[in-house]
């Protein structure tokens, strides 16, 4: 459906009948991933490996499309895919009917031990990495940027920070002040990560490739940022909201943080020594500003939009 907001009218109601399915949502992924634990053949797979349910984690993976005109909305559920694999133990779930429609237990492998796999610093005994003393960036006069709702103005830049459950952070209407024209000049209408494709290219039957934005959603998978860890003490935080499978609003606390980052970098520098009896030195520091983190499976995507006083915009 296409809507003309200025006229408050519906322009087009054409229904697309080609291939395509909506993005996954967290609720249906959770329900689908829990189905194997009450499924008889899966329980038998655990029994013959002498495993307790507490030793198994089920994770979901999308099914590739190979050009078929008609396909079902399917999701594959694999056991212990990321660590301590069981071999090939895999269920296929029909998401519309929310039931297991296919099951495989193709072979067994010895389960690796869990010792030596802990990564949390709080659980590790010394020595663990170098001891680095903490430091802080103090802004005695407060932040140099101003916020009007979700619109930020800073240095010579203006931009709007938006959110989408598929794309995650969206930077819109970014403008840079043009000194010669004495006005802001639009340089970016709408910027976001359109897709992040993870092509493992393993030729085995159980291999997967992922569209982490289009299938799983960068926005829906955003993590709440931790003050003083994900972002420094001078950061300003913004929340985000999306609609769940039942159209109820879900709040992501501290979904964005804005902060001025100064790492001692130089934007512009010159020392003039050709003028008699004078030495002129000018150094302009490079300060960058919006950060989000999306967690999908075993990946944490740290997304930084860097606005620089030079007028450049960098996405990392």
TrEMBL record:
It is an enzyme of class 1 (oxidoreductase). InterPro entries: Cu_amine_oxidase (IPR000269), Cu_amine_oxidase_C (IPR015798), Cu_amine_oxidase_C_sf (IPR036460), Cu_amine_oxidase_N-reg (IPR016182), Cu_amine_oxidase_N3 (IPR015802). The keyword Metal-binding applies. Residues 22-110 form the Copper amine oxidase N3-terminal domain. The keyword Manganese does not apply. Signal peptide: none annotated. Residues 138-315 form the Copper amine oxidase catalytic domain. Keywords: Copper, Metal-binding, Oxidoreductase, TPQ. Gene3D superfamilies: 3.10.450.40, Copper amine oxidase, catalytic domain. Its cofactor is Cu cation. Coiled coil: none annotated. Contains 1 topaquinone per subunit. Its EC number is 1.4.3.-. Topaquinone (TPQ) is generated by copper-dependent autoxidation of a specific tyrosyl residue. It comes from the Eukaryota. Belongs to the copper/topaquinone oxidase family. This is Amine oxidase. It comes from Stylosanthes scabra.
């Amino acid at each position: 459906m296409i809507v003309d907001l200025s006229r408050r009218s519906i322009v087009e109601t054409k229904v697309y009948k080609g291939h395509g399915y909506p993005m996954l949502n967290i609720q249906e992924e959770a329900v689908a991933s829990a189905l194997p634990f009450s499924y008889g053949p899966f329980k038998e797979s655990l029994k013959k490996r002498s495993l307790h349910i507490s030793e198994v984690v089920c994770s979901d993976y999308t099914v590739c499309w190979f050009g078929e005109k008609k396909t079902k909305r399917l999701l594959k559920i694999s056991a212990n895919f990321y660590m301590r694999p069981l071999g090939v133990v895999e269920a296929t779930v029909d998401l519309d009917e929310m039931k297991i429609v296919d099951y495989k237990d193709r072979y067994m492998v010895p389960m690796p031990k869990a010792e030596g796999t802990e990564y949390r610093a709080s659980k590790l005994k010394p020595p663990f990495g170098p001891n680095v003393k903490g430091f802080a960036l103090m802004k005695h006069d407060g932040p140099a940027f101003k916020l009007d709702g979700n619109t930020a103005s800073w240095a010579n830049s203006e931009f709007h920070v938006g959110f989408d459950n598929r794309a995650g952070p969206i930077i819109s209407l970014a403008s840079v002040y043009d000194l010669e024209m004495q006005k802001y000049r639009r340089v970016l209408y709408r910027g976001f990560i359109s897709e992040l494709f993870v092509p493992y290219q393993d030729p085995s039957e159980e291999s997967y490739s992922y569209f982490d934005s289009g299938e799983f959603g960068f926005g829906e998978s955003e993590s709440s940022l931790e003050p003083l860890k994900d972002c420094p003490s001078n950061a300003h935080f913004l929340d985000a909201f999306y609609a769940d499978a039942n159209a109820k609003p879900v709040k992501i606390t501290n979904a964005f943080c804005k902060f001025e980052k100064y790492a001692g970098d130089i934007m512009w520098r010159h020392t003039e020594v050709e003028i008699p009896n004078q030495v002129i030195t000018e150094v302009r520091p490079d300060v960058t500003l919006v950060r989000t983190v999306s967690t999908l499976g075993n990946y944490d995507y740290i997304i930084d939009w860097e606005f620089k006083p030079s007028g450049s915009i960098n996405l990392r």
